[in-house]
Amino acid sequence: VAAKLVVDGETTQQEFGELEFTPFLSGPIVLRMSRRAVDALIEECRVELEIDLKPALDRSKLADRIAREIGSLEPQAEIRQLLRRLLPPQLIPLAAATCRLSPSQLLASLDKRDGERIASVLKSLRIPVSDYRPFSEAIVTAGGVSTEEVDPETMQSRLVGGLYLAGELLDIDADTGGYNLQIAYSTGHLAGELLASQPI
């Protein structure tokens, strides 16, 4: 999917990739946007995620597809059967409610505006972000010792001799995709290698 992080009505970040609908939103694009989202929530801003569930289709092509799907179903079919052709089953109640439709409503009751509303929701599903997961579930953490206080050639503290810092002890974090593991491995290896070479 494509997604936008919207803070106080302004788009602050856009991402494209995998998103997981679980009891809370997760997945790579959510992780990439989480730092800005958490900062905005701490500052008591209004935070929303705007999701394009059909990024390969523009609104016009999506409306045409919805019309074709409706035409291929019996008029007495339920809206849930239409939405099942467009969405995973778990999203049908949310999409129907956002469109102000009942999943059990008959297709025969739909008018052109309903079809346009379905297309609009699929292209721009807005979900308010009200909270974030606890620290105990963090995958990557922001904050730590400032990199200005650490010698990058040895990973030794500039303030405390003999203290070496690596990984998430440092105020470094990167996008999801293995970069944070690489930071941990590289800084840990450098600090360990240099520490091991020093006399005890």
Secondary structure layout plus pairing:
Blueprint: E1 2-7, E2 10-16, E3 20-21, E4 25-26, H1 28-42, E5 47-52, H2 59-72, H3 79-84, H4 92-98, H5 112-123, E6 125-129, H6 179-197
Antiparallel strand pairs: 1-2, 1-5, 3-4, 5-6
Helix pairs in contact: 2-5
List its traits.
four-stranded antiparallel beta sheet, 36% helix, 200 residues, two-stranded antiparallel ribbon
In short:
The chain is of the alpha+beta class.
Characterise the protein shown here.
- β1 (2-7) and β2 (10-16) form a beta hairpin.
- The protein contains six helices and six strands, in the order ββββαβααααβα.
- It is elongated.
- A four-stranded antiparallel beta sheet has the order 2-1-5-6. Strands 3-4 form a two-stranded antiparallel ribbon.
- The longest helix has 19 residues, at 179-197.
- α2 (59-72) crosses α5.
- The mean pLDDT is 90.
- The protein starts with a strand and ends with a helix.
- With 200 residues, the chain is of the alpha+beta class.
- Helices cover 36% and strands 14% of the residues.
- The chain has helices at 28-42, 59-72, 79-84, 92-98, 112-123, 179-197; strands at residues 2-7, 10-16, 20-21, 25-26, 47-52, 125-129.
Q: How many extended strands?
A: 6
Task: Report strand order across the widest sheet.
Answer: 2-1-5-6
Shape descriptor reads elongated
Distance between the termini: 55 Å
